[in-house]
User: What shape does this take?
Amino acid sequence: MRFSGWQVLRQGLSGNKGWKPQWRDPAPKSKYDIILIGGGGHGLSTAYYLAKNHGLTNIAVLEKGYLGGGNVGRNTTIVRADYSLPGNSGFYSHSLKLWEGLPAELNYNLMLSQRGVYRLFHSDGQRDHFARAGNAIVNQGDDAVLLDQTALRKRLPYLDYDNARFPIHGALYHARGGTARHDAVAWGYARGADQRGVDLIQNCEVTGIDVENGRVRGVQTTRGAIRAKKVGIVVAGHSSRVAAMAGMRLPIESHLLQAFVTEGLKPVIDSVISFGMGHFYISQSDKGGLVFGGDLDFYASYAQRGNLPRAEQVTQAAMTLMPMIGKARTLRSWGGIMDMSADGSPIIDKTHIDGLFLNAGWCYGGFKAVPGSGWAFAHLIATGSPHQTAEKYMLERFKTGHLIDEEGTGAQHNLH
Ligand SMILES: Cc1cc2nc3c(=O)[nH]c(=O)nc-3n(C[C@H](O)[C@H](O)[C@H](O)COP(=O)(O)OP(=O)(O)OC[C@H]3O[C@@H](n4cnc5c(N)ncnc54)[C@H](O)[C@@H]3O)c2cc1C
Assistant: This one.
């Protein structure tokens, strides 16, 4: 069923009884060509591009819970292409271009809103760093404009520019960045993959990976054993656990990240504002809630909820940035598990086991990467060679030391 204004009208006039389930609910077969472990954004987009770009459809996506119940439905929905290091910039640039055509391609209202992203700077040194980053982003073919304080005050008059500790000197502005509805992206890719014949199997946890003579043979699940010639691990915060089933130890730590939303307010923030020095960022949802978050909870955990000290730090940062937020009431908070790599950049690679592939290490930036990652991972699984946008996302870099350290914080997982 295609979505359209006409369908909405027609269904509305007939009591909304004609909508059909958006994907099938198949029982798992005993054998597939390809199994993808994890029905988050990256697993679903990989399945979609395997089918669409490579004509491969004998595929199962195995999800231990429900589609979109992981981080893809828990993030703060920011998409952007303002990375500046070689290895990252081309990849995120490609991903944002895919985002721009995605609502039409998937025939799904992803609520993509390119409302612009501001990254604030607070010192001359930080301004110089952002000027260099902005030039790299422009050279890459994306957009970036350095705004001084006067220009920024006109656009964001409600910020506290004269804060003693973090006076705001200006911002790097990325006009094509913005937000998208997170779970709709998962649903859109799920529907697209299902339409092409991919089996999406929910409530099916992978409990073991079968390896014989250095080759992957399939997986053990809570719904029985399933054989496959190729298996992709795409489980974000659970990467280390699932890779351990194949005897692998990853350069990844899993950490908690929280987010918060206020009660619905009249429109006040028409962009995304990133206050990196205070580890705080904020936007406003279409329902009016101010959506914001901060840093990791700073200890490794597989719990999907955060703790109060971080909530306190985040609200302090919010008050530092825009004191008027003190009048808003926080409605709820939630957490997700971040697969923090040692350099803050992802892994899209083969493993030492034939037929076993790994997609991981998205840290807290993997939502914007969903289209680009699926595209590149599908290419790798289908052809055996890395896609040109993801050539540097190899596991080997953690041995050779050729890290892609966008933050420049060194090899410490929780600082990226
Ligand atoms: C609070 C928060 C804010 C964020 N904000 C942003 C943002 O603004 N912009 C941005 O770009 N990124 C953001 N992120 C990061 C982004 O959400 C993640 O990097 C990305 O969603 C991870 O990829 P995924 O969607 O495939 O993960 P998930 O949705 O977590 O998918 C992995 C799936 O694997 C399944 N799984 C795990 N183990 C097994 C198993 N054994 N068998 C079967 N299935 C299994 C899980 O149930 C899960 O559904 C944020 C994350 C959080 C938590």
